Amino acid sequence: SNAQQTLAILKPHIVKNPFSLNQVKNIILKSNFEIVCLKRKIISIEEAESFYSEHKGQFFYNRLVSFMTSGPSELMVLARENAIQEWRLLMGPTKVFRAQFENPCSLRGQFGLSDTRNATHGSDSPESAVKEIQLFFPEFS
Ligand code: DAT
Ligand code: MG
Q1: Cα of 122 to ligand 1 centre, how many Å?
Q2: Where does ATP bind (predicted)?
């Protein structure tokens, strides 16, 4: 088939709120993604630093690492045709005010609280998808 895989993360403020979590999962399934693997875990500081290493030195880096390790996230391998691009489209823009303005129906438009607490993560290329799936699902890859 033409299925491609991407790594998705539902960030801690989504997982903490059962109503949001359920809504996000329903949107994922309605959008024709298959949830191939799912795990709920508290991302460690080491994992978050490695995962976001490209942003080391940015003003938001420490805030991002402490938010991402503040409670359980849900990590998913999602599959569908063109999954990487389609998942990023469904998430919407990184910055929450842009998401709310340009694509209010996107996940970040609906569920984002700030530029850091922007609801979801998605891999940005086939190379990063492989690397990110490897990091969080070493037993799967
Ligand atoms: P994306 O998550 O859309 O791939 P990114 O890779 O540029 O965006 O940044 C990773 C995460 O870092 C992003 O989801 C939230 C945080 N972040 C990025 N830019 C930020 C900013 N200007 N202020 C606060 N947090 C930011
Ligand atoms: Mg990114």
Answers
A1: 11
A2: 11, 60, 88, 94, 108, 118
Looking at residue 55, the DSSP 8-state letter turns out to be G
DSSP state, residue 61: H
Structure confidence at residue 1 (pLDDT): 61
The domain tally of the chain equals: 1
* CATH for 125: 3.30.70.141
Mean pLDDT by 10 residues, the chain (141 residues): 92 98 98 98 98 98 98 98 98 98 98 98 98 95 72
**Complex-level ipTM beyond the 0.85 threshold:** yes
Strands (E), 1-141: 3-10, 34-41, 73-81, 120-122
Side chain identity, residue 42: I
Pocket-testing residue among 64, 73, 87, 121, ligand 1, by greatest number of atoms within 8 A of Cβ:
64
Ligand 1: lining residues by beta carbon, under 6 Å: 55, 60, 64, 94, 115-116, 118, 121, 124
Domain of 67 in residue numbering reads as: 3-136
Residue 14 counted as domain residue:
yes
Give this prediction's pTM: 0.97
